[in-house]
Amino acid sequence: MATNQLSPKIFACSQSVELAEEIANAYGTKLGNVITTHFSDGEFQPAFEESIRGRRVFIVGSTFPSTDNLMEMLLMCDAAKRASARHITAVMPYFGWARQDRKDKPRVAIGAKLVAKLLETAGATRIMTMDLHADQIQGFFEKPVDHLFASTIFLPYVKSLKLDNLTIASPDMGGSKRAYAYSKYLESDVVICYKQRQKANVISHMELIGEVEGKNVILVDDMIDTGGTLTKAADLMMERGAKSVRAICTHPILSGNAYERIQNSQLTELIVSDTIPLKKNISKIKVVSCAALFADVMHKVQDNTSISDQFLM
């Protein structure tokens, strides 16, 4: 009986039910029961429909827009705390608001820091996420952060393509560290795109640092929003003589006309994870599941064993 009391439970926020079900299956259990009451003014209230007293609770929910997704995670953490859960792990495959990680101009908020404090105040005792937009966001938390790398799931897929003359590319200077990590594992060259923005999501100018002629290029980034940067980079590389251009992006935000832009681009393929559910399926998008990775790390957290073997870079 005591062992049963300490066995973990996995719950899903409404925006990530499909991924949470896959994680629970890979873990070897079923999702816990959550009922959400919706009020006519748009307010909502999630409630656990089973006892979680004394248990480790994993709450799975990516916090992409709208803000209701973040609010639901906060409410579920608070509910778990008030229901006497022993440990509350906020499993956020996509950590929203991460692009607001610093003051890049006067009089702006640092949204990522605010979200970190909200999660801790709500009751989260541990955070589990993947490919943060900025690594230093881990330092915004006073609680443990398990920061997983999507390279663990993407690199085997890239190897299965068996591409010759492979070159890894970063779509901007900020992603160069990620690109070099991939290139080191794949023993390939690296090129970097230098871009200047007119404003958010609008690129005024882009240049390429490095040679891509006759190369099979794979662009690597943590997220894809409007698709403007990647499609512009793909066009530039094909103009410079690249044999093919693919892209790996962990988090498929894909807002605006991103789907049409990707489908009509010179990208051979866009490889994404399922941290954010796709709004539509198109032929150029390949989804690689992160469920098994999260399930394995959750097992290790429960058993208090090292997760370092999950880091391929």
From TrEMBL:
Q: Name one Pfam family in it.
A: Pribosyl_synth
Q: Which InterPro entries match?
A: PRib_PP_synth_CS, Pribosyltran_N, PRTase-like, PRTase_dom, Rib-P_diPkinase
Q: Per the UniProt record, which EC number(s) apply here?
A: 2.7.6.1
- Name one cellular component (GO) term: cytoplasm
User: What is the name listed in the Swiss-Prot or TrEMBL entry for this protein?
Assistant: ribose-phosphate diphosphokinase
List the SUPFAM superfamilies: PRTase-like (SSF53271)
Molecular function as annotated in GO: ATP binding; kinase activity; magnesium ion binding; ribose phosphate diphosphokinase activity
- Organism, by scientific name, is Tenacibaculum discolor
Q: Does the keyword Mitochondrion apply?
A: no
> Domain named Ribose-phosphate pyrophosphokinase N-terminal: which ranges?
9-123
Keyword annotations: ATP-binding, Cytoplasm, Kinase, Magnesium, Metal-binding, Nucleotide biosynthesis, Nucleotide-binding, Transferase
Q: Give the GO terms filed under biological process for this record.
A: 5-phosphoribose 1-diphosphate biosynthetic process; purine nucleotide biosynthetic process; ribonucleoside monophosphate biosynthetic process
- ATP-binding among keywords: yes
* Recorded catalytic activity of this chain's protein: D-ribose 5-phosphate + ATP = 5-phospho-alpha-D-ribose 1-diphosphate + AMP + H(+)
